[in-house]
Amino acid sequence: MEAFETYQTPLSSRYASKEMSYLFSPAKRFYTWRKLWLNLARAEKQLGLPISDEALKQMEDNLHLTPEQFEIAAVEEKKRRHDVMAHVHTFGTVAPAAAGIIHLGATSCYVTDNADLIFLREGLTFLIRSLSALISRLSAFAAQYRDLPTLGFTHFQPAQLTTVGKRATLWIQELLWDLRNLKRVRDDLGFRGVKGTTGTQASFLALFDGDHDKVEELDSLVTKLSGFEYAYPVTSQTYSRKIDADVLAPLASLGATAHKIATDIRLLANLKEIEEPFESTQIGSSAMAYKRNPMRSERVCSLSRHLMVLHQNALMTSSVQWFERTLDDSANRRITLPEAFLTADIVLSTLQNISEGLVVYPKVIARRIAQELPFMATENVIMAIVKKGGDRQEAHEKIRVLSHEAAHQVKQLGLENDLIDRIRKDAYFDPIMAELDSLLDPASFIGRAPEQVDAFLKGWVVPALADKESADAIRGGGKVELAV
């Protein structure tokens, strides 16, 4: 396998965004290596090492690899069995004035690990933008259906009413926590910097004739040139692989959120209350032409499980790094890190596509409420009778008997719930007959759900999306179209 092929992943081929696919592409990786070598050379020259302006210019003019340079690197790696040295040689062919100082004092992890930290930070930024757009779309959905009553479920059994919008806020709240977690881990990321072969900076101390201050300044200069606020104070040959575990943790948590949302949508699709977008020419089943399978939500669940598992991989890799390093992390991380970000990217874009085309069926929702509400309304009926001077125990017994008769109609005969008709026909309830319709109004059973939606969107979502980063992402998010 050629050098530049070792960084490719099949996930990027169809569904991942162009920016996330490019982030983990060979072109981006080796461009970043060259930029890191240039930053090192600039800092070393600034601190007194004899590096010519021409060397820096040639390096700066050749940061992007041509197809011919990829071929040279592939041949070199096959010969040298070392990817970094293959690219040191390749860079030197187009920047001959710098050939002798490229990678000066550094170990391979100077470029591989520092580049990975750059990719992790940029990848988190992409995910933060996508997540902001998703939250915005779902928030619009929640606002639209803030007061549409729907049957709530506990244990997937009929429970008190809620609203379609209130249920959506439960999804959004978890996504807000994911947004917070992604921002925290991104903003906490540091740089490996220039630390040498085992983290002691011995090679750089030799370059600067034992001047500790210059070595510290070199580390600081390269860190700032590379766009980081700080470098980790101590490292081994690598940055601690615990960082990878820390980064993948919020991605895994995002996967859990996405899986829950998509599962709810799949269950609602079965109930025919809410469906994901379904194209006019889309085929749900090769055999059953009538089917409208929730394929996109199923895809989210499938990929989310993979995303959650990848965190375990990072934890295991972190736990088995011997002393200053081993190499059994390398091939593993080249797969795990890109896949985690590409998977999260696809999950978010698919969820956004779903959220932008959710179809709600109010009449189906109302019919299901009508099937269950009579039983839920019995307490209201009893209280109304008591207010009219009736006896609570007597009213309770009347309702109990009628409820059992109605339940028999539903469960044993497969008929509709006729409890309300039975109440209307019973003279005992004549004192409240004029109130019966209002006692059964679904809107009277949703509590403060609409007000909770309003307060949540105003008090939590709006502030969370108010920063420029999120606002720009929302404006530029557009409508996501996916292959089904």
Automatic annotation (TrEMBL):
<dbReference type="GO" id="GO:0006189">
    <property type="term" value="P:'de novo' IMP biosynthetic process"/>
</dbReference>
<comment type="pathway">
    <text>Purine metabolism; AMP biosynthesis via de novo pathway; AMP from IMP: step 2/2.</text>
</comment>
<dbReference type="InterPro" id="IPR008948">
    <property type="entry name" value="L-Aspartase-like"/>
</dbReference>
<keyword id="KW-0658">Purine biosynthesis</keyword>
<dbReference type="GO" id="GO:0044208">
    <property type="term" value="P:'de novo' AMP biosynthetic process"/>
</dbReference>
<dbReference type="GO" id="GO:0004018">
    <property type="term" value="F:N6-(1,2-dicarboxyethyl)AMP AMP-lyase (fumarate-forming) activity"/>
</dbReference>
<dbReference type="InterPro" id="IPR019468">
    <property type="entry name" value="AdenyloSucc_lyase_C"/>
</dbReference>
<feature type="domain" description="Adenylosuccinate lyase C-terminal">
    <location>
        <begin position="373"/>
        <end position="457"/>
    </location>
</feature>
<comment type="similarity">
    <text>Belongs to the lyase 1 family. Adenylosuccinate lyase subfamily.</text>
</comment>
<dbReference type="GO" id="GO:0070626">
    <property type="term" value="F:(S)-2-(5-amino-1-(5-phospho-D-ribosyl)imidazole-4-carboxamido) succinate lyase (fumarate-forming) activity"/>
</dbReference>
<dbReference type="InterPro" id="IPR004769">
    <property type="entry name" value="Pur_lyase"/>
</dbReference>
<dbReference type="InterPro" id="IPR020557">
    <property type="entry name" value="Fumarate_lyase_CS"/>
</dbReference>
<comment type="pathway">
    <text>Purine metabolism; IMP biosynthesis via de novo pathway; 5-amino-1-(5-phospho-D-ribosyl)imidazole-4-carboxamide from 5-amino-1-(5-phospho-D-ribosyl)imidazole-4-carboxylate: step 2/2.</text>
</comment>
<protein>
    <recommendedName>
        <fullName>Adenylosuccinate lyase</fullName>
        <ecNumber>4.3.2.2</ecNumber>
    </recommendedName>
</protein>
<dbReference type="GO" id="GO:0005829">
    <property type="term" value="C:cytosol"/>
</dbReference>
<dbReference type="Pfam" id="PF10397">
    <property type="entry name" value="ADSL_C"/>
</dbReference>
<dbReference type="InterPro" id="IPR022761">
    <property type="entry name" value="Fumarate_lyase_N"/>
</dbReference>
<dbReference type="InterPro" id="IPR000362">
    <property type="entry name" value="Fumarate_lyase_fam"/>
</dbReference>
<dbReference type="Pfam" id="PF00206">
    <property type="entry name" value="Lyase_1"/>
</dbReference>
<keyword id="KW-0456">Lyase</keyword>
<comment type="subunit">
    <text>Homotetramer. Residues from neighboring subunits contribute catalytic and substrate-binding residues to each active site.</text>
</comment>
